[in-house]
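Problem 12. The chain below contains 440 residues. Write out its predicted structure in token notation.
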Amino acid sequence: MRTAKYTIIALCLLIYVAAVYVVTTPSLLSASSPARLQSSPESDLKVPPPEETVSLIDRIILTLTNHPATSIGIQWRSNKTLKNPQLVQYLPTPESEIDPQTAKSVLAQKKKSTDNSFEHWQTTLTSLTPETSYSYRVGNQDHWSEWFQLMTAADHNKPFNILFFGDIQEGIKEQWPRIFRNAWLTHPDASFMLFVGDLVNKPDSGTEWHDFFQSLGWLASIKPMVAIPGDHEYNDKILSPFWNKHFQFPAYEPDTSCPLNNTAYYFDYQGIRFIALNTYAMRGLKLKETLQQYQWIKQLLENNPNNWTVVFQHEEAWSSALGKSDKHHLKLLFAPLYEQYNVDLILQGDSHVYSRGQRKTKENQRLLPVYISSSSGTKFRHSSSNWADRQGEFLQLYQHISFGNNQLVFKSITATGRIFDQFTIKTDSRGKSVLQKPPS
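Solution.
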């Protein structure tokens, strides 16, 4: 009865939000798509840039799974001149020379692809030992990559830190790499990197995806990443084929045909629950997709044994930029859930500004979660927010988040290493999280 009641309430709210959308943003319901989401006439899907054709094996990427203490996902690309099949060889990292004869071999799965020159591969290493360094390489007897090292997560609550990057979209090759490299040089012990979408500007541009992976370089082969798609990973409501070819994130549901698979998911990492929400799938107020993710995330929050909870989503509930509008379904449906179940952080992008703040009660009491929007590329907008405690514009930033047993420390950092924003959330004697001394 209670579930039916919540569903009816959610449906009524959605009908109300739909009415607001029709009045305020009719263009969202239009059949036409924005010009910037169209594929260029000279599609890069089948004709890669010349610089892409030199490597026999490249784009070796680690991704997290539902069980990061005992498994890890590995994706890569190989030139079609190499014979099939492709393998992963791995073993616990030795202190001396690696002996390939002692390594285990796992057959990789070939992904569907329309590339003329490349094939894409994926596998998941399982039954690994927690908190253990492993060495691995990909390929076959014709050609192997170099050996890389990775570290599995702990299987219990343990402090760790991560790097969070807002939208890139522009300046992918020329200017974003300095942010990415400075972040890792400053925080080499970060456990993984998190992206909130708009990795590229044109979803089908092989050149832009090439620039993104070139910028990641070998770091993506030793440090796992998680990401959600933004609107620039979609072309007229169709997810860029580059996404599924290169990334394998935890499944949304066992049915592999579900369109939310690989774009909405969750994982628990050393006492923290991370939930990836696909806000683009709800754009235009699609009732089915909105209610589907609402009920899914509600269950994940209801049954959450972790100390901290982080949701990352591309679009903002409350807009931070001039000319951008609030997302009413996120405000009216999802924000109350976040407050009800004590979510700590909402990591966002889309607006190309920096904003950090919390919703306030009529008594001016600040409520968790803390909402943060950030941008790491060179597309900027003017900041315009009536909800944020801290705002910034025309800044390339990265974020460092440190999770402890009793406190969470968040820092937003500029290209020069200056701390632009910082706050701490601590647990009090009752176990509830409170914001401590937010900067002015």
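Discussion. The chain has a mean pLDDT of 87. Students who got a different answer should revisit the alignment rule from Section 12.3.
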